Amino acid sequence: MSRGSSAGYDRHITIFSPQGKLYQVEYAFKAVRNANITSIGVKGKDCVIVVTQKKVPDKLIVPSSVTHMFKITSKIGCVSTGLIADAKNQLSRARHEAAEFKYKNGYDIPVGYLAKRIADTCQVYTQHAYMRPLGVVPILCGIEFEGKQAIPQLYKIDPAGFFVGYHAIAAGHKEQEANNLLEKKVKSAGEKGMTYDEAMEAAILTLQTVLGSDVKPTDIEVGVVTVDEPEFRTLSEEEVDKRLSIISDRD
Description:
By secondary structure, this protein is of the alpha+beta class. 37% of the residues lie in helices and 24% in strands.
């Protein structure tokens, strides 16, 4: 085995290569990109918008049963990019964590704390040889209330267990291109932040741009949470179609 090659070092998750890499963890990131799904999250001054592609792999499948958009609690939403089976397992643990927190403390789990707990589990999965990293990147969104102040929250957690809050973020196949576009949109919005309509347009338009074509209402899923309506909900096809029409008319 030559010291410069990766041969042999990707057999076990707990072995570093001579370059200081954990190849199995890097392969988990690659699994997320190989799912060919791109997801976008945008935080406005009074809302959070998440958008993802919807691909039905077989005509025999009922389209309404295919989704990457989930509720963890009534007020915390999640869009999972990557292997959907891994996402379901992760969601189950997150829901258990959220329910246990509320039972012990008497109030809903904060979005940031839930993101930390999910990230901690992901990080532990990189330390043990009898586990493997989950090939999924969840983006969490919600509204936190501190006294009378309502604060929109947007977090992304990666398979290595790294998590941080964002103004806007992308995950999946076209992640880098989308992040470059989102960076410009957040910069142009400035300190005041985006309104609900601006955040919605930024998320959908970014996804359309990186995909290189106009999308139909059946091609995407849109999840929203706002200060006025803090419960996470997914827009219906009619609502998505209305939003797409508004964006195309502006263009």
